[in-house]
Amino acid sequence: MDNKSKKRSHTKSDSPSEGAGSGASANTVQSTQPKGQQVDQKADRTREIVDKYGSDKTALIQILLEIQRENHWLPRDALQYVSEKLNVPLSQVYRIATFYTAFSLIPQGRHHVCVCMGTACHVRGSPRLLDVVKDNLKINPGETSPDNKFTLTTVNCLGCCALGPVLQVDNDYHGGPSTEDVKKIVAGCE
User: Fold this and answer.
1) Is 168 part of any domain?
2) Are 119 and 180 within one domain?
3) Angle formed by the axes of helices 35-52 and 76-86, to 10°?
């Protein structure tokens, strides 16, 4: 446990400094534009999404899904804008946003990595697979990498038990990946 604690604190304390001066995140919008322009672009994109549906209250879930897809989470200012444009109480927008697990109110990584921990996968080695994934991503389940590239989660069942243990990366499923396979899968994420 001491080694894991040291490893976690080492990873968290070093990651921001690595990204800050090394240009490691040169592919992201953050590194290429001033912060004010980023906010304006996100707000513009949110307006485009909402305007596409007009003031159709029945499109609330679809609007939130598109905003989630665009941002990888639902920012508060976007939820307020949706509330105002659809003339729906903000509490109702939050009720929807917190009810469905497809939505997140905290920033998520560009790539969603999920390890199945269901019974069939568990007996076939999902705890070991999870350890390999954690070692490769340098994060634990429920965390997002400092560069916002990955979010790691676990799930009770992905519904493809015969492939177990299963690793899902975005919309791709990988059955019984080896340590080398996991490295290649992670490296293949842009």
Assistant:
1) yes
2) yes
3) 30
